Amino acid sequence: MFVCGGCGAELTVPVSEVALPVHTHQHPWHELLGVLMEPGTFAVDPGSFGPPWPPDRYVPPADLPGGPSGAVVIAPGDVRGTVFSEVAAEGECFGPDGRDGPNLACERCGRLVATRIDDCGHWQAVWLDPRAVRHVSGAVAPALTWDELRAQRPGVGPVEQLGYWSPLWSAAFAAAMARLLALSGGVPVAVPDGTLAELLRPALTAMLPGGAPGRTLTLAGPGLPAGDVDIALVPRHPQTGAVWSLPGAGDGVPLEWDVWAHLAHRPRRGPVALPAAERRDDPAPLLPDRPFHLDRHVFVAALGRLPEVREPWLRSVYDKARHPGSFAMVW
């Protein structure tokens, strides 16, 4: 639970800490996004949050002046005892975007304590100002085991009802691609035919030189057959942020659990023979209305945090990706 740092009034329900989602700072233009955090949870952002906003939003926030570090993000429904400020609720199409700083005040004493984000192109969230609140207690939810995650969180599909690619997939693979490029050493990476190849080959082809592949990418993790791998996409635990450890000497590339789980364990339906007069009442599989793309903001920010970005070849990818349209599959 978080309370007002001034008067001690309760500002949230009991919440337990989880890992900061990879798509936290995703900004997909004017798309209306859902709630970032699950009910009863909070995460801490080690970077800066709030004005003065950096002049280049694609540079890692830690490298530029900005708001305080350590901001706490929670679901809007977990907030208690706050009211909107009269002077700081500016936004764009749908609601406030926090451009002027905190816009929620403690109902008891009037102290500005948080920023409500509810605008297009932003995940809906409330950001508690670490300078104005205190963490006094909270529920400590036990971390699920990998087997429990498989049973309780089967994953999120890649395509939404309207035919759009899930923004979570765009962000998750953008972060994974940054790490994959760093591990490649600047030589081609082979991806066996299948879903991963459809998603990642265009970007790998555009960002790495041609020639014989130097490394091979596969999928590994709980519930999949064990074996030696070279580079593998492995799951990141949604509560602890821990990354699945490969049993051998290969290199793991973290991928958000909800995306990894769908890739690794999604149910596969075979053809079912029905009489000609019978009608199927299950919907056809959802298909995307456009090619898959990596979220540019997440990709560039993830690259910028890697020490390998100092290598000339990867720095050239970083510099190019900062400009919209430089890579057709990154936007």
Describe the protein in words:
- The strands form 3 sheets. This protein has a 7-stranded mixed beta sheet, with no helix packed on it. A 4-stranded parallel beta sheet has the order 10-11-12-13.
- The protein has helices at 146-152, 167-184, 195-207, 257-265, 296-304, 312-321; strands spanning 2-4, 16-17, 41-48, 69-74, 82-84, 104-106, 112-117, 125-128, 133-135, 189-190, 215-219, 231-236, 251-256.
- Helix 2 (167-184) runs parallel beside helix 5.
- It has 331 residues and is an alpha/beta fold.
- The longest helix is centred in the middle third of the chain and has 18 residues, at 167-184.
- It contains 6 helices and 13 strands.
- It is globular, with a radius of gyration of 22 Å.
Notable characteristics:
331 residues; seven-stranded mixed β-sheet; 6 helices; 20% helix; globular
Write the H/E string, N to C: EEEEEEEEEHHEHEEEHHH
> What is the terminal-to-terminal distance?
38 Å
Count of DSSP strands? 13
Helix fraction by DSSP (H/I, runs of at least 4): 10-25%
Which outline best applies? globular
Poorly predicted regions = 55-65
Give the radius of gyration.
22 Å
Helix count, DSSP H or I runs of 4 or more residues: 6
Estimated share of beta-strand residues: 15-25%
Question: Which strand order spans the largest sheet, edge to edge or round the barrel?
Answer: 2-3-4-8-7-6-5
The helix/strand class is alpha/beta
